[in-house]
Amino acid sequence: MMSTTEKTSSAQAIDMNLIDSLIDPYIEEPNALIALMQDIQNEFSYLPEEALHRMSERLNVPFAHVYGLATFYKAFSLAPKGKHRVCVCTGTTCHVKGAQRILDRLIRELGIEEGQTTVDGDFSIEEMKCIGACSVAPIISVGERKYGRITQVKLIEIVDKYRKGGGNGGDQK
Asked: Using H for helix, E for strand and C for coil, what is the string for the chain?
């Protein structure tokens, strides 16, 4: 039997009681794996391997199926994401309007590559093919907030605002 708290490969403690409390509403709905994975990822910012095993065990679903879903959908991550997930749109319109320069500047500013998370766990960088706001290209999103007509100067202002904990005011222009 597993202990109440287990360690992940990144040495972050995973509370298995919390995992179980997230699984409980889905016990009678083993076909609702995606919704459960969304709940778990919302709680931990990624899908801990321990949680996937527990889902498999408690819902009586083969681990290969659970893992397959977790790795098939780009929305899910098996590695911890930063508290602030910065997505840079690199779709055609954003690309033409300088998205690569924005992405390069963000990489330099945070000291990490696309797909990575800062050591302090505050930021992750992700590239997206389209955020769906071409009229205000280039655009980034930080969590659910969208920031359009991004320049390198504006990018640094936004990152600094989140570093200082003031990233709640979204600028959707």
From this structure: CCCCEEECCCCCEEEHHHHHHHHHHHCCCCCCHHHHHHHHHHHHCCCCHHHHHHHHHHHCCCHHHHHHHHHHCCCCCCCCCCCEEEEEECCHHHHHCCHHHHHHHHHHHHCCCCCCECCCCCEEEEEECCCCCHHHCCCEEECCEEECCCCHHHHHHHHHHHHCCCCCCCCCC
